[in-house]
Amino acid sequence: MRKAEYRVALALPRRVAETALAEDLGVSVEALRAAFAHVYGVSIYRSLLKFRVRLVDQVLGANADLNPRVIAEICGFGYFGRFHQLYRRDTGRSPGPNVRCGASSPDGLAMARAALAATVDQYFSEMRA
């Protein structure tokens, strides 16, 4: 499961199709679905959605000055309103006080991407060891 999450994290903000993920991991789609259902008790889609929410939460936890809207976008959430609902449901809190409308600066986007990369590196450090 960690390898699947890692593949998804590396592809962000793009989404990874179940078939591509299964092929990349060398298993059938059915086996991948069964593994996710067994380990997480939910579908691949729901599990990876929750994983992306956790990534946003970890990035924001370590970088409170970053714009949650930008972090959500680079983690593959296209519509912030829906992301906000998912975040509140999964964490029990709002994404943060720094929600601003409009596009962020190029510097802010670069900082957000760097923060996500650092979080992914830390989260999956044992896989590269």
Automatic annotation (TrEMBL):
Residues 2-101 form the HTH araC/xylS-type domain. InterPro entries: HTH_AraC (IPR018060), PchR_regulatory_protein (IPR053142). GO terms for molecular function: DNA-binding transcription factor activity; sequence-specific DNA binding. Coiled coil: none annotated. This is Transcriptional regulator, AraC family.
